[in-house]
Structures are given as structure tokens and as C-alpha cells.
């Protein structure tokens, strides 16, 4: 059984709950999203496995998950990047944001998401329980794809690209200096 960290609006831990129960009740909990770029400034996307209990088969950022109780968001991001994509690289926390969305299945995603960026040309080795496909894409092409086919992408990923694209671009520009 996997547990998530319940938090208040300021990201202060207020308890723990089994992951599925937190998504059934819509309780605010801590999450992580990782964005890995290669030397061409292309973002590594994963297509979520079909067995995922929500957003199955949708394209999303390189890695997304939840810290375990007593685990930092950074450590969770490093761990899950290795577990999901087989990649190990340093990460930088760039921002956090909160979102809430209801899924057709009745589940509710209500997360305070910590977003990390890293750089690597290491090719992914997919964990088939997590991801079924990957691709690299530049941010301009990604934005166009999301506008053309919004139902092909996860909710939180679209939120990040729509609301925080400027912060991703800023980090890419700083990296190439």
C-alpha cells in the first residue's frame, strides 16, 4: 500500500493517507513533476501505461509521482525518475503550484506539485508499469500539439505548459549560457 503526504495550502504536512483514498476524497497532497531536457533543448515526454488508474495512455512530462512520507520532494523526484525512466541526473526545483481536477472515473486529483528540471542525453529505459512510450519534443512543437490535441495529454502537464512555460524557457536559456 502506498501513502501520500497530505498538506495544507502552504505545503505544511498535516497527515498521511493511502494514495487511492486521497484521490477518491480529493484531499490536497504533495506531488512531484520532473522535466528532463536534452542538449537540443527537447523535452523528454512519456506516454503513461494503460494500467494506470487515471490518465492511462496520455502523454505527460518525463516523470510524475508522489513523495513518500518522510521523503523530500527532491529525493522522490530522483527516485521516481530512475524507477520510471531509468535516468539518473541532478535536478533543480523551479517552482510549485496547486491544481485540482475531477476525472470521469470519479477520482479527484488535488495536488501541490513540486516541479523539477534536469538535463540529460541518457536514453530512457522505460518501466512498463509506468510508461509505454517516450519521445523528445521542443517546447514550440509541444505547445502546438497540445493546442491541436488537448485530450492526448494529462491535465497537470497541460497546466504546467500553459501557465509556466516562461519559467521552463528561462531555465533552458540559463542552461545554454
CATH evolutionary superfamily: Nucleoside Triphosphate Pyrophosphohydrolase
Helix content: 25-40%
User: End-to-end span in angstroms?
Assistant: 45 Å
Largest sheet, described in full?
Answer: 4 strands, mixed
Q: Find the count of extended strands (DSSP E, 2+ residues).
A: 9
Please, what is the oligomeric state?
single chain
Would you identify the regions where 5 or more consecutive residues have pLDDT less than 50?
none
Highest CATH level, the class:
Alpha Beta
Order of helices and strands: EEHEEEEHEEEHH
Write the layout of secondary structure elements.
Elements lengths: L2 E5 L5 E6 H7 L3 E9 L5 E6 L10 E2 L2 E3 L7 H13 L5 E12 L5 E12 L11 E7 L1 H10 L6 H22 L1
Parallel strand pairs: 3-8
Antiparallel strand pairs: 1-2, 3-6, 4-5, 4-9, 7-8
Summarize the model shown.
This protein has 177 residues and is an alpha+beta fold.
Which properties best describe this structure?
single chain, 177 residues, alpha+beta, Nucleoside Triphosphate Pyrophosphohydrolase, four-stranded mixed beta sheet, three-stranded antiparallel beta sheet, 4 helices, 9 strands, 29% helix
What does this protein structure show overall?
With 177 residues, the protein is of the alpha+beta class. It has a single domain (3-172), classed as Nucleoside Triphosphate Pyrophosphohydrolase. It has 4 helices and 9 strands. The protein has helices spanning 19-25, 73-85, 139-148, 155-176, and strands at 3-7, 13-18, 29-37, 43-48, 59-60, 63-65, 91-102, 108-119, 131-137. The protein has a 4-stranded mixed sheet, sandwiched between helices. Strands 5-4-9 form a 3-stranded antiparallel sheet. The chain has a two-stranded antiparallel sheet with strand order 1-2. The mean pLDDT is 94.
Amino acid at each position: 500500500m502506498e501513502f501520500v503526504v497530505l498538506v495544507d495550502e502552504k505545503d505544511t504536512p498535516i497527515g498521511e493517507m493511502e494514495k487511492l483514498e486521497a484521490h477518491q476524497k480529493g484531499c490536497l497532497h504533495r506531488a512531484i513533476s520532473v522535466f528532463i531536457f536534452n542538449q537540443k533543448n527537447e523535452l523528454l515526454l512519456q506516454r503513461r501505461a494503460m494500467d494506470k488508474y487515471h490518465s492511462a495512455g496520455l502523454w505527460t512530462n518525463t516523470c510524475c509521482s508522489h513523495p513518500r512520507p518522510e521523503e523530500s520532494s527532491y529525493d522522490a523526484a530522483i527516485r521516481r525518475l530512475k524507477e520510471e525512466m531509468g535516468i539518473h541526473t541532478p535536478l533543480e526545483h523551479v517552482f510549485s503550484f496547486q491544481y485540482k481536477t475531477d476525472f470521469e472515473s470519479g477520482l479527484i486529483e488535488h495536488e501541490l506539485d513540486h516541479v523539477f528540471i534536469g538535463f540529460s542525453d541518457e536514453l530512457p529505459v522505460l518501466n512498463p508499469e509506468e510508461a509505454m512510450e517516450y519521445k523528445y519534443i521542443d517546447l514550440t512543437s509541444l505547445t502546438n500539439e497540445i493546442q491541436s490535441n488537448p485530450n492526448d495529454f494529462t491535465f497537470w502537464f497541460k497546466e504546467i505548459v500553459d501557465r509556466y512555460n516562461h519559467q521552463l524557457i528561462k531555465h533552458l536559456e540559463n542552461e545554454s549560457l
